[in-house]
Amino acid sequence: MDLTDRPRRLRRDGVRDLVSETSLAPSDFVAPVFVDATTDERVPIESMPGHERVPVDEAVSRVEEVRETGVEAVMLFGIPAGKDAEGSRAWANDGVVQEATRRITAETDAYVVTDVCLCEYTEHGHCGIVEDGAETDADLTVDNDATLPLLERIAVSHARAGADMVAPSGMMDGMVGAIREALDEDGHANVPIMSYAAKYESAFYGPFRDAADGAPAFGDRRHYQMDPANRREAVREVALDVEQGADVLMVKPALPYLDVVSDVRRRFDHPVAAYNVSGEYAMLHAAAENGWLDLDAVARESLLSIKRAGADVVVTYFAEDVARAL
Ligand code: PBG
What is the pTM of this model? Predict the structure, then answer.
């Protein structure tokens, strides 16, 4: 036997941690929080065990629970009191995210990231203004340029309420540049933008759409979110957001798109975020409930893999559970 290279030498306890290439810490995670203006009690989200929609009055206590696990950053999603064609509750000064942000930043030290999008606020559930006459899937068009001023208003209203960072997720062309300019003009030059730079039209968002009540009433999002078949296009998408001033580059979903996370890591020096989405969470829970998977172990392995692929930041519904276990 003439084996000189024996990688197994470094797999023994005592040395394996020393040579480990990737680690997880609570400071890597952002925990999504759903704030719901239509309820005055916490409502469990069935397809996302352990998660709830909380009323504005409970936003602070919900964030304190997150902070107790060591996770310091939250991403806020809002379920508004009412919806209309434009999604005007999205930029209302007394809107659900604005109100929650004001309270959370006044009463806790959490780092508050807000989702900047229209789909939870429009009657039709799309991420922008739907062009007149579109009532069927075939003729649906979300008007890119008409949507940009609305995204600017949302981002500015979040920053005025005290948001530490804004995260536009609507996949409109030019959204990062438009929001950057609007924030700067309103005196928020120090509020960074985490762009959902490569966001795919994914079936893994299913449980989130229940949670945030943001499913499209007709049609789908394939005209604005990316085609799951495309890898090179993601690099182009991300490059455009970099040119427009994005501070953090997000890939979404995470696990089915680790090739994209890895590409973005190698091609850009900006911090990279990956969104471990609702379906990635729900499927592990469903398998664990059947006794088919060890939930803690697969949750941890998932987050470790996302970091190994190159993410610095992981937005995940597992944030609290994994942070507690670390
Ligand atoms: C809003 C938005 C979505 C998610 C985050 N922001 C839904 C969508 O694009 O349909 C999905 C998050 C998840 O599945 O966990 N545009």
Answer: 0.95
